[in-house]
Write a structure and sequence with these properties.
There is one protein chain. By secondary structure, the chain is an alpha+beta fold. It is built from 5 helices and 6 strands. A 3-stranded mixed beta sheet has the order 1-6-5, with no helix packed on it. A hairpin with a 6-residue loop joins strand 5 and strand 6. Helix 2 runs antiparallel to helix 3 and helix 3 packs across helix 4. The radius of gyration is 20 Å and the shape is elongated. 22% of the residues are buried.
Length: 176
């Protein structure tokens, strides 16, 4: 059986709390500070620590490379890249179950919402809900999407203003 190399999340690379276990996502200023700190700590010419490459099989002590630190910073500092990155993790796009604590089929940080708890815009045929990021119509579900996912009884929707996601649960009522 091939050995899986542990790949830390971008949050772990910069020693930031990840949004799946923390109630607050790191701010732009916190990301910049963490980036500079990580560069100083892991740069071979600046750090008093011996450099250990990320390909080491001693997973807990593997240190990120300067390239990995730069990639983590560029991804997290850009709101669109960050949202895409977090979406890929929430949808299981990484081959690393250690990225999100808990069983691989769980989605920590994914809020469960009943469709009845969302507001309905009859003229548009959409359900919507605001997000804690402040966007009023952050999560939008169209009736067409509900029909498409009717058998599953749930649909995942990303916020239009940040990287948060909700899972909308609903039941299909057959009309006679």
């Amino acid at each position: 059986m091939p050995t899986k190399i542990y790949t830390p999340t971008h949050y772990e690379t910069l020693s930031l709390p990840n949004p799946w276990t923390s109630s607050l996502a790191p701010t732009t200023a916190e990301i910049k500070i963490a980036y500079k700190r990580a560069l100083l700590l892991h740069h071979p010419d600046k750090s008093p620590l011996k450099s250990i490459t990320a390909t080491t099989t001693d997973l807990p002590t593997a240190k990120p490379t300067i390239d990995q630190i730069g990639t983590a910073y560029r991804t997290l500092i850009s709101p669109s890249a960050r949202a895409e990155y977090e979406k890929s993790i929430l949808l299981g796009g990484r081959d690393n179950t250690n990225c999100i604590p808990g069983p691989s089929d769980s989605r920590l940080g994914l809020e469960m919402v009943d469709l009845d708890d969302m507001l309905y815009a009859e003229c548009e045929g959409t359900y919507y809900r605001s997000c804690r990021c402040g966007r009023e119509r952050a999560y939008v579900v169209r009736e067409k999407e509900l029909e498409q996912f009717g058998e599953e009884g749930e649909i995942r929707v990303g916020c239009k203003g940040c990287s948060l996601w909700i899972q909308v649960e609903f039941g299909v009522v057959e009309e006679d």
